[in-house]
Amino acid sequence: xxxxxxxxxxxxxxxxxxxxxxxxxxxxxxxxxxxxxxxxxxxxxxxxxxxxxxxxxxxxxxxxxxxxxxxxxxxxxxxxxxxxxxxxxxxxxxxxxxxxxxxxxxxxxxxxxxxxxxxxxxxxxxxxxxxxxxxxxxxxxxxxxxxxxxxxxxxxxxxxxxxxxxxxxxxxxxxxxxxxxxxxxxxxxxxxxxxxxxxxxxxxxxxxxxxxxxxxxxxxxxxxxxxxxxx
Length: 231
Fold this sequence. Notes:
CATH topology of the largest domain: Rossmann fold
Number of helices: 7
Largest sheet: 5 strands, parallel
CATH superfamily of the largest domain: NAD(P)-binding Rossmann-like Domain
Number of strands: 9
Oligomer: single chain
Structural class: alpha/beta
Strand content: 15-25%
Order of helices and strands: EHEEHEHEHEHEEEHH
Radius of gyration: 18 Å
Number of domains: 2
Helix content: 25-40%
CATH class of the largest domain: Alpha Beta
Shape: globular
């Protein structure tokens, strides 16, 4: 339980993340009004909810976002792999002033990992002889590769001047998610690694994002992210 008022949460996505979000939401005192599959999105009648959380598939994300936008239902989205539709979705989101929060990763550990990365990459910038690479490992059910988190990490370091960083991906059974950055020189190898032990951290962050979005009353002039939630 938390001091947060109880929310009616609609979960879209009947996979492992949907189940994990359902468990965390209930533990925090919220009501899960339904767990819908992708095929249910086209239904005319949706249960009344304060906020929706979706983990579906890359080809479904745009449809889910449009359906929630049509209903003025705040949406937290954790689906990755829909980058080609980003500009179209963002324009429609801003035009409708729709509360939409998207993140490639909801883990607080990954949030701190990216903060540590920023400090480390900034300190190393300008020192010659170092090459940087990004590698990620996920379970075999993850459809997009490289992961959205790995691509976001590559964007992070590119913004700091590390251009053209190679990003590799591996799929192994039973791995919730591991992301590694490695700087190499002839003399050293320096690694930053985040390894998720289970899906609970992702679900916890998604529910915290839903709590933040449900009470947000400001302008919806962009797609929000976890920096908005955790600062």
